[in-house]
Amino acid sequence: MTDDLLARHQAVLPSWVTTYYGNDAIELVSGSGRRVTDASGRTYLDFFGGVLTNMLGYDVAEVREAVERQLATGIVHSSTLYLIRQQVDLAEKIARVSGIPDARVFFTNSGTEANEAALLFATNHRRSNQILAIRNSYHGRTFAAMAVTGHRSWSASGLSPLQVSWLHSGDKLRGRMAGLSDGDHIDAAVEDLREVLATTTAGDVAALIAEPIQGVGGFVHAPDGLLGAFKKELDNHGILLIADEVQTGWGRTGEHFWGYQAHDVQPDLITFAKGIGNGFALAGVVGRADLVNAVPATSFSTFGGNPISTAAGNAVLDYVLDHDLQANARRTGEILLSGLREVAADSKILAEVRGRGLMIGLEFCRPGTTEPDTAATLAVFDECRKGGLLVGKGGLYGNVLRMGPPLTLTEDEAREGLAILVAAIRTAESHG
Prior knowledge:
The protein is α/β, with parallel strands linked by helices. The chain has helices at 2-12, 49-52, 61-72, 85-98, 111-126, 143-147, 182-199, 226-235, 289-292, 307-322, 325-345, 374-386, 411-431; strands at residues 28-32, 35-38, 43-46, 103-108, 130-134, 163-167, 207-210, 240-244, 269-272, 283-288, 350-356, 359-364, 389-390, 392-394, 400-403. The strands form 3 sheets. A 7-stranded mixed sheet has the order 4-10-9-8-7-5-6, with helices on both faces. Strand 7, helix 8 and strand 8 form a beta-alpha-beta unit. 52% of the residues are buried.
C-alpha cells in the first residue's frame, strides 16, 4: 500500500515536496507518546517530532479533549470579526511568558507567516525595507521570509521585497569565526555588524532577524550573549531585534524557556510556531504594542488563531508549564548530549555535537577534516531507521542529523534512542 501511495504522491504533488528514505518512504498511521507506527506495522521512537512540531508527542489526552470540547460547540471557525475566547486566553498567556511589557499577539498559521508579519511590523514602524539577517538561517518559504533566509538550498528565488545585508553565522567548524574563543567570536561579530551597517546599508535599517539556534541550518548557534551584544549596537541606530523562536521556544533548549534568554537580551518582536500547536496549525508574533499596532490598514488572518487551533494551543502551553517540560528537556537532553559527546571524542566521522536540551545536531565530516560527509550522514540516518529511530537531516551541506524529540521524552527513552544512535554511528564508521 505504501508503494502505491508513493507513486500517487509523485504523480500529483510537486517534485520538490520530497519524502525521507527515497523509494522506501514510510506512511505514519498511528502514534502514542513518543512512538509512531507505519503502514507496515513497524513502530519507531520518534526523535524528530514532525520537524520539532509534535512537542508533547502523540495522542495527548489533554490536547485531544480540549479540541473535542471546542468541536462539540459546532464552532470550528468564526473569523476575528467576532470575539474568540480561546484566542484571547492564549494571547494573554503568551504575552505573560514573552517577557515583553504591554505585549500584543497576532496569530497566524505557520512560522513563515509569523516571520512575514514581524517583518511587516518592523518595516512599517521604521519606514524602511532594510533588514539584517544571518547567513545559514532559515525563516520560511514565502517572498519576504525567503529573502532573509541565508541558505541556498531553501532559497527558491533571488527576487526580494527587502534590501538584506548579511552577518556571519555562529559556525565554529568553518568560516571566519572558526576556532575563535567565545569572547573573540562576539567581538569579531559585533565588529562585522558595525562594518555592515557602515558599508552595505543606507543607515536606516529596520531590524535584525535571528534564530537563537539555527534550525534548518543544522542547529548551529553562536556563543551565549551575542544577540545581547548585537542589541547594544542596534540600539545606537534604533534598529529592532526580531527573535525567530519557531524552533527554540517553549522550553525546548532546557536551560531557558526562549532561546533568546541565553543572550541577555529582550527582543522587540518574537515569532513562534510549531510546538505550540502540537500538530495543529498555530503560530504568531508577540511584541511591543507600538510595533504590532504599526499596520496602517485593516488586516487579519482568516484561519490564524481559530477556535480549534487555539483550544489546542491553550492545552499545550498549560501542559508545558504544569509539567515543567523545560526541566525535562534539560534532563533528558543532557543524557543524549553527554553520551553523544563521548562518541564524538573517538569517532572518525562525527565532527561536532551541538545544541541544547532536546535540540541536538550531529555534524559528520570526512576523517581529519571539516569537509562535509553527506554519505556518512545518510548512512547513519538510514541505520537509525533500521534500528527503530526516526531522526531528521539538515545543515548547509546536508551533513547534519537533527533531533528534536517531544519534550515529554522519558529518561529511559533517551537512553534507548542514544543506544540506537551510537550503534548507527559505529556501523556507518565501520562500513566507511
